[in-house]
Amino acid sequence: MFGFVINKLKNRKWLNLCLLMGVALFIAxxxxxxxxxxxxxxxxxxxLFTDHATQQNEFPAQMSxxxxxxxxxxxxxxxxxxxxxGYEKKWTEYVDINKVSSQQLITLSGGRADxxxxxxxxxxxxxxxxxLSEYVDVxxxxxxxxxxxxxxxxxxxxxxxxxxxxxxxxxxxxGSGKKEISFVISQICSEKDINNPYWAKxxxxxxxxxxxxxxxxxxxxxxxxxxxxxxxxxxMLDYRQINTENASLYDGYMEQFKxxxxxxxxxxxxxLDGFFTQQKTIKLMLWALELPCLVLLILFIRMISAQILSLxxxxxxxxxxxxxxxxxxxxxxxxxxxxxxxxxxxxGIVLGYIMCRAAASTDGFLRFTAKDIGTYxxxxxxxxxxxxxxxxxxxxxxxxxxxxxxxxxxxxxxxxISKKKPLWEKCFIDVILLALSAYLLYxxxxxxxxxxxxxxxxxSIDPVMILDNSLFIFAAALLCVRLTGLIILLVDRLFKKxxxxxxxxxxxxxxxxxxxxxxxxxxxxxxxxxxxxxxxMARTMNSNMEKRIxxxxxxxxxxxxxxxxxxxxxxxxxxxxxYDEPDFGKYESLKxxxxxxxxxxxxxxxxxxxxxxxxxxxxxxxxxxNTKEFGExxxxxxxxxxxxxxxxxxxxxxxxxxxxxxxxxxxNLAKDMGLKVGDSLNYSRYVPEAxxxxxxxxxxxxxxxxxxxxxxxxxRYTYETDAEGNVTExxxxxxxxNYATVVEKFGMTPYSVWMNLSKGKTVDDIYKNLTSAQxxxxxxxxxxxxxxxxxxxxxxxxxxxxxxxxxxxxxxxMTLKQRELQFGIYRAMGMRMREVKAMLxxxxxxxxxxxxxxxxxxxxxxxxxxxxxxxIIYLPQKHNIGVNVYIYPSDMLELTGVLFVAVAVCYxxxxxxxxxxxxxxxxxxxEDS
Length: 929
Known about the structure:
- Helix content is 55%, strand content 19%.
- The protein is α+β, with helices and mostly antiparallel strands.
């Protein structure tokens, strides 16, 4: 039996190889899912931990415990440290991650103290910090063996005006009163590397602690009559070992730690909560993006398997006539499909791994890079998915055999002459699905703002929103098949009397087979329309993201200078403050060196109050600029269709330059406060937050000289998240003033340095810690959501080209083979070869060219209808620049070129087959059958 199956496969090796290709691609796309999901999940985790470290300025994987122990139970420092180490050991027994570092601090409450050089009534805490000497640099030191030695931080030194060698007289209770203990400051310390994971608490965070050795600390415990000793324990873990496989398990353990121990805390669970939400979104997005491509491959496999089954109808009837039961025939074909599925499974796993790695390496549509994709590795779930996909393929290929295994040969004849309409056409399924798609689109468009907020709140997306475009393409394809059939009937009725015999035969064939040939049309339409939509969706997403980033940055690169704030308390109780401006000359020299074409100061303040008439607005955004330098440096990214403003933004700079006390304001500020050009307003600024949170120190009157909708670096819409994770949209108001006027009226305050890089120069030619538009674009391209989208759209587009070309060519070649007898009869009746070719060309026009053109039209229509809606997933924020649809001619040319080559090759192959066809053989074939 097995040998018989192998021979059957060999007899139609090319068809079976094409079927194997389709099955392998289907399984490959299936097994991509777990690898992509796990890889993207690990990438998200890594980014979340990194972002947490940057934003919160702390190590992102800490487990901690802070509290007090009774001195009676823990009489010395070592017993406390052993207890804390026991907690760490218990934590890591469950959360099996390597320890990076650990910081354990134990303290006694200390007391009031005087210092040797006049300091009175200061308060100090006595502390012991294991490993202190390993992680600090000694700024100053001086020893004194006559008293207890201690170390202090630079902050404590500055705060109390202490020096190395100075004595501290600490008054501590000893049970019968107060006793004075003398300490000498032997060392003044600072962190060697404040970014070292050890510094969960920095020296500044520890307050006014005087650090002593363990022996001195134990001796101090004997002097105190206090009942408790305070401690803090921070365990830093290697967050790189937390991945999609163990994240949920570790999160559960940490929840149990918190429930069992109220003093336990960590900063890992919040990160994991964000990860779980994003992971759910990634899963939904992957299925939503993969499903249309899987359907396309199923159509391809169905088309080939149907052709094979059609060619083997005689074989099935012969087997049935010789006594084989329907079950035996089914088992025979089950073995045949099983062999193909097994081979496809092996190839699919390898191909899926390669496809996933290739998709993960994209940083744009059809743009493959050599970036690090180490998080995308082989996972065992790929084997499970491969087996599941193989089983689906076996059933999909084999089940139709059961229907073909009829008991009577007459049923085969009735099948062949059957002209029944397909169910979908009878029930108008195409119209119903099209109406459903339009209804969903209408509803989603009405909910755009709600959907955008849900994306910003990291809630799960609705996958139907992504799949609606595929539903539209499928329904439109069915509708086109219906309309094509009506067009064929209409043309035939109108011109039947004028047809040549070849054309009459061609239309007769089209009418008889239009229901069967509709499958090819649906396949071609979905392939072309899907490819066009995928390309346009990816281009639109990437282009809009890049343009928004360029607009938000406002120039090529920005450097935020470090300004030192000096605060002084006056005798009358008031506070004076002043910023020390760094040397700006080093940036101006960049122009002389040919690195920058423009450099300018931009003073920014988001805590500005504006009043005009009886109205006022808080938290406006002030930009103070030098108009000439700013014009040479900044860039305003315009909208695709037209400029954001009514005139070029340089005109507004010219108006500001004419008015030293003038300001440019945003259009929303002008609208809400009823201002127009020529009106006056007043704006006020607050003292630095380090001095006072809510104190205005100066105001300035200004004249409105221009009103703008967009300005470099100005984002009109901002979003704030409350404690419960709810996001609210707010508008930001802009006011732009002259830099010299602002500095004169308000004094020197921190500014950022904006740069316009010379051609061919990058930020690496200046400083590494610059903020540049290109860096932000690169970071955005490497985000998991964008990477998945680019990767899947790229794969879908490439697969569409391959499947469409192979499917189209194969279908027509097999159709020609099946009609070999018919063409032989036509030739025997006197039809010339030129007429046969004309007949086939006419059929291709209606069955191939019209669907291809319809597919292009449907793809462009789907782009116009759905791209802006789906863009909410990637661009949920409102922006000065609206979402514009981008259609790249190069993508359309690539698709058109591949299809043209496929059609041309098909026609050449058909011509060669017709020339090689012999009438006698064809007629003899008819006699045999």
